Amino acid sequence: MSKDAHPRQALFAPRGAVATTQPLAASAGLAVLRRGGNAIDAAIATAVALTVLQPGSNDIGSDLFALVWDGSRLHGLNASGRSPALLTRELVLERAPEARATGALGGAQATAERVMPARGWLPVTVPGAPAGWRDLHERFGNLPFADLFEDAIAYAEHGYPVSPIVAHHWSRAADVVHAALDGPEFTEWTRVFTPGGRAPRAGERFRNPDAARSLRSISGTAGSSFYSGELAEALVRHAERTGGLLREADLTGHESTWVEPISMSYRGHEAWELPPNGQGIAALIALGLLDGLDGPAGLHQRIEAIKLGFADAHAYVADPAFHPVPELLDPRYMSIRRQLIGETAGEHPAGRPQRGGTVYLCTADADGRMVSLIQSNYMGFGSHVVVPGTGFSLQNRGAGFVLDAGHPNVVAPGKRPFHTIIPGFLTRGGAPVGPFGVMGGHMQPQGHLQVVLSTVDDGLDPQAALDRPRWYWHTGRQVQVEPGLAGEIDELRRRGHEVTVVDAPGAFGYGQAIWRTDVGYVAGSEPRADGAALGY
Q: How many CA within 13 A on the CB side of residue 57?
């Protein structure tokens, strides 16, 4: 579904902007800006609306990460959840002895080894999104918290026409993934998300009154009902009845973490990511490696740099509360790693992470505040577990753990897993340029790298940077490219890369970006998705 031949035009707005993958969600954020809300209010309203409008990619039961420019400095929020106290490596191996794959997230081995299950209760960690919305609002919000839920509740209660790309992925989740699942924990998903026995088609109206009730409960209690009220009680009851591990103490003990963002300089700019447990450090490593090369970096060098970034991210990124991450961005260490970028394709060890189900959004307001926010289930509808009467699916971010007992990211109680979802932010000499992100599992650091290079090296505006054809390194020497990069194929193959041309929705991620200008903002929205950049 390449759109290279028909690129969108960038949006220029004097006062504020919202960009995300679903136009109605972007509209909800813009409405908040026009009512006097700030960029943080708009981000929350957009994020909440996305749980209703794009439920396969995210939901009320998601995790969340955000970067906030408050007008003078950057703040980071890690709103990802921890594993249940009952979740141990031994329990996973006992319950899912059949779970096997070649390689594992974080593993360098080529032999078959056990990996975390992707569906059902075992990969469910405490959802962090509701607490993340609350924490962002408590620190930076302007409008009343409940007001930010109005559009989302209305869409859930009265319905909305499903957009085309969302419908495509929804259908696949129902017909391919969910059809293969069996167990009482999956029954409610069928009732909620396949009304009439199938996924809704593009343009068909979908209603989710249970989700409307859940959102009213969250908005009216500032999120507390999800962790210690009626929604928490329903979640624990369903877990106890159907083999889940989440208990009251897991939910009441949840808290987000404010963190200091990390950065890497590249040609007078600074790219910012959140520190581990996310994989954003892979993009920073790649940028640092390229920044130190003699001469311009071609596509081959860019691919080799991201391979090296992933090699370290998969080996060392884990919950820093359990395993502090080494100084991977140290200039001396990077100079050693840079020497591994040779003339031909190398096989730098890395894992085989799955592609993700995620939404990304960015907002900006008239006072210079900007937000980069990413929210995700994982792998499309996450665990496929829906608590009866709630209308939302639970994420399966625990699938990011590994079962190698000696690995920093090994599954354990009360631990945050390796996360693929990463918001990005760009500055120049410390001054804000703006928020950006490209979602899509293993694609995300690669998308971040490509957007930054297109912006800094080539001077492209956000829309032009997002329109540009993308490449995706998979594993080993395997590289996928969009048709627009066909002219690069012969050179890549000459250097030993195994290149495949792919033209499919979602294969290269979905991005958004907003850059600050002297007269306002310029914004872009992913041409491969349903989304929009809106402003005023």
A: 30
Return the half-sphere exposure (C-beta side, CA atoms, 13 A cut-off) of residue 174.
21
Q: Distances in Å between the alpha carbon of 400 and those of 89, 111, 284?
A: 13, 19, 20
Which helix H or strand E contains 248, and what residues bound it?
helix 248-252
- Residue 444 sits at the vertex; the CA angle it makes with 305 and 490, to the nearest 5 degrees, is 50
Q: Helix, strand or coil for residue 466? A: helix
Count helices and strands (H / E) in the chain: 17, 21
**Using one digit for the tens of pLDDT, what is the confidence trace for 432-475?**
999 999 998 889 999 999 999 999 999 999 999 999 999 999 88
DSSP string, 24-93: HHHHHHHHHHHTT--HHHHHHHHHHHHHHHSTTT--TB-EEEEEEE-SSSEEEEEEPPPPPTT--HHHHH
Upper half-sphere CA count for residue 1 (Cβ side, 13 Å): 15
The residues near 373 (Cβ < 8 Å, ≥ 6 apart) are: 43, 46, 47, 64, 65, 66, 67, 360, 361, 362, 363, 423
| Distance from C-alpha of 251 to C-alpha of 248, rounded to nearest angstrom | 5
